[in-house]
Amino acid sequence: MRQIINFVLRYKNFLLYLFLLIIALALTVQSHSYHRSKYFNSSNWLTGNIYETTSNITTYFGLGEENKKLVEENKRLRNLLFNQKKEDSLLLDTTNITYKVIASQVIKNSYSLPRNYITIKKGSAQGIKPDMGVITANGILGIVENTSKNFATVQSILNTKSRINAKIKNTNHYGSLIWDTKDYNTVQLADIERLVPVKIGDTIVTGASSSIFPENIPIGVIRNFDLNNSQSSYSIDIKLFNNMAAVKSIYIIENIQREEIIELEAKTNNDSQ
Amino acid sequence: MIRNSYFINIIRFVLLILVQVLVFNKLNFFGYINPMVYILFLYWYPIKEKRQLFLLLSFLLGFLIDLFSDTVAIHAAATVTIAYLRPTIMRFCFGVNYEFQNFKLTNTTKAQQITFLTLLIIIHHLVFFTLEIFSFENTLLILKKVLTISIATLILCLLLSSLFSVKKE
Predict the structure, then answer these.
(1) Most distant pair of Cα atoms in chain A: their distance
(2) pTM of the prediction?
(3) For this UniProt entry, which segments traverse the membrane (chain A) (predicted)?
C-alpha cells in the first residue's frame, strides 16, 4: 500500500500529464468518428460573443464590397422575377412552401484546417436547428452542426467529414462532394461512373436526393478530371463559385418536410428488417 | 513581488488567447500558415512555480484555443505535452544551470533561448499536426506543415518576445 502511495507521489506529474493527455485524446478521437461533442465548439456563449464583437467591428471595413455583392444578387433575382411566365396564385399559398430561408452573417470563418467549421450569428432562439443547409449568394457553404441560444456552428464543405449529394447540371448523374484538404477553392466530386460523359467547365449543382438542400443550388465548375486507379469512377476537381476565404452574408435553408422524410425513411428501414 | 508575477501571468494568458484567435488564426498566409504564438506563455512562465499548476494551466490554455477554433482538444493535447517536457528541454538547453535558485531566462545567451523556443515549437507542432491530420498515409504532409508553420511561429514568437522583453538595466 505504502509503495503504491510512494509511486503515485513520485510520479504525480507524469500521472497528471497522462490524465490530461488521455482526456484530450479521447475527445479528439471521439470527434473524428462520431457527431462532434455538443459542448466543445465555438457556438457557446463565451466564444460566440467575443467573435460577434470583433466581427461587428471588422465588418465596417468591408461594407462597400458587401453591398455590391448584395445588389448583384438582387439584380439576378429581379431578372428571374420579371421574366417569370406563369402568374399562378397557387404558388403564393403558404401551405405549398417547402423551404424557409433565414438570413444571417458569418462571425468566424476557417479554411486552413482539415476539418473546418464556420460560426454564424443566430441560433436556436431564432429557429436554427442542426442539419439545416447553409448557402451564400454564389453557392453552397455547409450544414449546421451545433446550435446554442444565439449562435451556431456550420460544418463547412471544406471538411473531411462533409459528404453532400451533388450532380452534374441538367443530368441525373449523382456523386458526393468531398474535400481532399489541399486547396480551399477546390473540392472533389466522387462516385461518378466512367460511362458518364464529363467535360471541363461543366457546372455542378446540389442533387435531389438530399433532404437538406433544395435541388440545383450552384456549387462550382469542373476544373479537371481523371479516371481512378480502379477505373470504375472519375475523380473530379471542382472550382467553387464561392470564395471560401471571404464569406459574410449567408442564408440558412430549412426544409419543412425534412422531419416527415426522415420519419418515413426510418419507418421503411425498420419494416424491411 | 509574487502577487505581481501572478498578475502578469493572468494578463499574458488572456492576451495571448485573444491575440491567437482574433489575429493569428485569421492570418492564413499561403492559405494554411497560422502561427501559434500562444506557445510564448509556456516560454515565459516562471520556472520555479509548481508543476501541477503549470500542467493544468497549459491544458486550459490549449483547451480555450480549441474552443475558439473548433478543434475539440488538439491544441490541449499538444500544449500539455510540451508543458510536461519543458523541464527536460530546459535541462538540455541550459545544462544544470537552470536548477539554481537565481536562474533567469534573461541571463542566458540568445542561442540558448532560441534553441529552447525552437524545441518547444517543433514538439508542439509535431503533436498538433499528427493529431489534426490523423493518418500516417500523409506523413509527408504532416512534416511539410510542421516545418513551414514552425518557422513562421518561431519568427513571430521571437519578434513578440523581443518586443515585450524586460529591459536589462
Answers:
(1) 88
(2) 0.86
(3) none
